[in-house]
Amino acid sequence: xxxSRYTRPALAVMAIGSLALVGCGGGDDSAxxxxxxxxxxxxxxxxxxxxxxxxxxxxxTETTAAPAAEVLVFPADHTxxxxxxxxxxxxxxxxxxxxxxxxxGSSLASSFIATxxxxxxxxxDHMATYLPDVAVADANGAATVEITIDPVCAEGDCYxxxxxxxxxxxxxxxxxxxYQG
Length: 181
What we know:
By secondary structure, the protein is mostly beta strands. It has a domain at about 70-180: Immunoglobulin-like. About 5% of the residues lie in helices and about 35% in strands. The strands form 3 sheets. The protein has a 6-stranded mixed sheet with strand order 3-4-10-9-6-7, covered by helices on one side. It is rod-shaped. About 20% of the residues are buried. Residues about 1-25, about 55-80, about 120-130 and about 165-180 have low confidence and may be disordered.
């Protein structure tokens, strides 16, 4: 019996072969000998295992924090919009707004109105006399304006305007504070 042993990486295989001789004789010595050869074969099947790694999962979390006061500036007509969440303010609170796009040195005034745009107000001139001065625009046309929330705007939706005069097409140039309830 012959044993042959060899090794592959991570796999050991043994092959065994056997040989048997059988002699048959009879009568005289001149008779032919019959030789029977039996071979036993061992077949080794190599099983391959393929492991596929699960794809990586990347979790992306985007968080956008809205500012308490957002200023959008449109210098062409001196109009900007500031949105303040109504739930963050109550009557008597002071809202500070950074405004820009106005004529340098212009006197800025403020008021509460119920509609937007201000052109919906029947008498803009009357509104202009009603608006109290709150700030003066600097050399860059910018100013910091402090506006006190009144009871009406604290309870319902309304707008605030900071303005320096009548804008294009009769629209009152200014800043809108839109309270969203």
